[in-house]
Write a structure and sequence with these properties.
Largest sheet: 6 strands, parallel
Structural class: alpha/beta
CATH class of the largest domain: Alpha Beta
Distance between the termini: 36 Å
Helix content: 40-55%
Oligomer: single chain
CATH architecture of the largest domain: 3-Layer(aba) Sandwich
Number of helices: 15
Order of helices and strands: HEHHEHHEHEHEHEHEHEEEEEHEHEHEHH
Low-confidence stretches: none
Radius of gyration: 22 Å
Mean pLDDT: 94
Number of strands: 15
CATH superfamily of the largest domain: Phosphoglycerate kinase, N-terminal domain
């Protein structure tokens, strides 16, 4: 296990159920197996770490997948009051297809369904949406905390409200940007997605990642931000290199004047200070996506600097997304963030639409 943030976040619900005398059967997924068993994505390491965190046995046996005969037999043999972790739900293609036949088998494992997987609640899958139609259902403690935190951003953000967005693609964040225009006072855009905006403004971005089919959309978003009164800021300079690898030679260039043989891989020192200044005085902050390829030391300074800047604020701060959480944990400031969201895509979709498939079904 490289990051147990989501496991730790699930503990209150599991412990509450056990204290109430429940026999717990847990469903989850790991990675992106292609609809069949794959030893690289088995749940054994998750079971081992969860047992350490709970301080008790977590039953787990490798099986051929969700709903299989061997899995059904193993669940039926669960002792009262035990905890059983099922094999990766995505070992069966019926999971992502939300196939009712798989949902019926999974629902047969329990009397009550509790969804605490906020990070998967934006997917209408058999284990996250299908089962909830078949059993009395409820949201877990983590799910409730996530909804409460993100609802504050949608309906009660104290101004100034600053949004910090990074990552690779404008297309991944398009919906949330559109939703936040007019709500947020400032949107600070870093990561590779910034270069699509800079190119749309006529800048030279070298070999940086650019979504060519999003240039018109980027120009429109920049115009709409002005009209909506939301200031959209881009990094003025970038840390550049010819390739993404540790030990590579780097150079700092204006983000709109990157040489043709280089690519922008992190926000530069001037951009760090400009973004830090734009965060100063904020009372509400939402951050999703790193400012650069922070896994490589040469391109981590921007993300780490902004993690510290967000943590230093006297504000309500929410950080969401796997990469952003990893950056916050690496910088050691997680305990100074108001809410660490376990769902990247889920948090973005909630801010965009105000709801998720895995939530809607719990209210049905």
């Amino acid at each position: 296990m490289t990051d147990d943030t989501r496991l730790r976040a699930s503990l209150p619900t599991i412990e509450e159920l056990l204290a109430a005398g429940a026999t717990v059967v847990l469903m989850s997924h790991l990675g992106r197996p292609k609809g069949g068993p794959d030893d690289a994505y088995r749940m054994g390491p998750v079971a081992d770490r969860l047992a350490e965190l709970l301080g008790r046995e977590v039953r787990y046996r490798p099986t051929s997948g969700p709903g299989s005969d061997d899995q059904q037999a193993y669940v039926q043999a669960a002792p009262d009051g035990s905890v059983t972790l099922l094999e990766n739900t995505r070992f069966d293609s019926r999971e992502t297809a939300n196939d009712p036949s798989l949902a019926r088998v999974l629902a047969g494992y329990a009397d009550v369904y509790v969804n605490d997987a906020f990070g998967s609640a934006h997917r209408a899958h058999a284990s996250t949406e299908g089962v909830a139609h078949l059993l009395p259902s409820a949201a877990g403690r983590l799910m409730l905390a996530e909804v409460e935190a993100l609802t504050k951003l949608l309906h009660e953000p104290q101004a100034p409200f600053v949004v910090l967005l990074g990552g690779a693609k404008v297309s991944d964040k398009l919906g949330v940007i559109e939703s936040l225009l007019g709500r947020a006072d400032r949107l600070l855009v870093g990561g590779a997605m910034a270069y699509t905006f800079i190119r749309a403004q006529g800048g030279s971005v070298g070999s940086s990642l650019v979504e060519e089919d999003m240039l018109d959309t980027a120009r429109e978003l920049l115009e709409r931000a002005v009209a909506a009164g939301s200031e959209l800021r881009l990094p003025v300079d970038s840390v550049c290199a010819r390739e993404v690898e540790a030990g590579v030679t780097t150079a700092v260039h204006p983000s709109d004047e990157i040489p043709s043989d280089l690519m922008g891989l992190d926000i530069g020192p001037e951009a760090r200070e400009a973004f830090r200044a734009a965060l100063a005085g904020a009372k509400t902050v939402f951050w999703n996506g790193p400012m650069g390829v922070f896994e490589v030391p040469e391109f981590a300074a921007g993300t780490m600097a902004l993690a510290e800047a967000v943590a230093d604020l006297d504000a309500y701060t929410v950080v969401g997304g796997g990469d952003s959480l990893a950056a916050v944990n690496r910088s050691g400031v997680g305990d100074r963030i108001s809410h660490l969201s376990t769902g990247g895509g889920a948090s973005l979709e909630f801010l965009e639409n105000g709801d998720l498939p895995g939530l809607k079904v719990l209210r049905a």
